[in-house]
Amino acid sequence: NIQGFIFDLDGVLTDTAEYHYLGWQKLADEENIPFTREANEALRGVSRRESLMLIIGDRPYSEAQIQEMMERKNRYYVELIENITAKDLLPGAIALLDELRQTGMKIGIGSASKNAHTVIKRLGIADKVDAIADGYSVQKPKPAPDLFLYAAQQLDLKPQQCVVVEDAAAGIEAALAGGMWTVGLGPVERVGAAHVVFPSLAGVTWADLRAKLNEAAK
Ligand code: G16
Ligand code: MG
């Protein structure tokens, strides 16, 4: 019996992926490391540190240099997200959030980002969510289930009462490992492991979700 939804932030409710990309691209250019938009796809939902590791590969940076680069990229990112408004919500996000709340569902956010609180505030949805699990909440990043389990706990729900909505393969993996229902947004090649897949939240209603989840439960 489903009683709550946990939404990933970047790629599900808003598209901050572009700002993460611009931040990493600037850093990579400054460090003379080749980096492209395509390479950025592999960083979807991946933690800040893991993202940097994928960018630098086996280049011999010290821990101090790694820390400095993470901070530098974050400064660029924080600057870029200053202008986020409700207009940056992805199509269908607000309609579904509002509908789910009306049906009595609890709503949580499960984001790997340490900037999640800022983004949620700027999007104007802070009063529509009951709990936020972010990049400070747990140690182990997705695909470990810890972040979503933390969110479920904050909502006072059992994992099997929660639906996780994710755009990243690592996020679907994390939610499945936590014993939750999963909705994947995007191509099947990326989120096909989810119980239910939609191209995006545009036009998705609770009735659609309930029907497809019931189907998947059979
Ligand atoms: C996001 C993004 C990732 C980003 C990570 C950490 O997660 O998808 O690209 O690297 O958070 O963000 P920050 O550097 O702000 O702590 P999610 O989980 O909302 O998709
Ligand atoms: Mg995401």
Give an overview of the whole structure.
This protein has ten helices and six strands. A six-stranded parallel sheet has the order 3-2-1-4-5-6, sandwiched between helices. α1 packs across α4. The mean pLDDT is 96. The protein is 45% helix and 11% strand. The protein has 218 residues and is an alpha/beta fold. The protein binds 1,6-di-O-phosphono-alpha-D-glucopyranose and magnesium ion. The site of 1,6-di-O-phosphono-alpha-D-glucopyranose has 20 residues, from α3. Magnesium ion binds next to loops.
What is the beta-strand fraction? 5-15%
Largest sheet: 6 strands, parallel
Shape: globular
Give unreliable regions as ranges. Answer: none
What gap, in angstroms, lies between the N and C termini? 14 Å
C-alpha-based Rg, rounded: 17 Å
How many β strands by DSSP?
Answer: 6
Average of pLDDT: 96
- What structural category characterises the helix and strand content? alpha/beta
Number of helices: 10
Question: What ligands are attached or bound here?
Answer: 1,6-di-O-phosphono-alpha-D-glucopyranose, magnesium ion
What is the helix content? Answer: 40-55%
Return the string of H and E elements: EHHHHHEHEHEHEHEH
- Major sheet strand order: 3-2-1-4-5-6
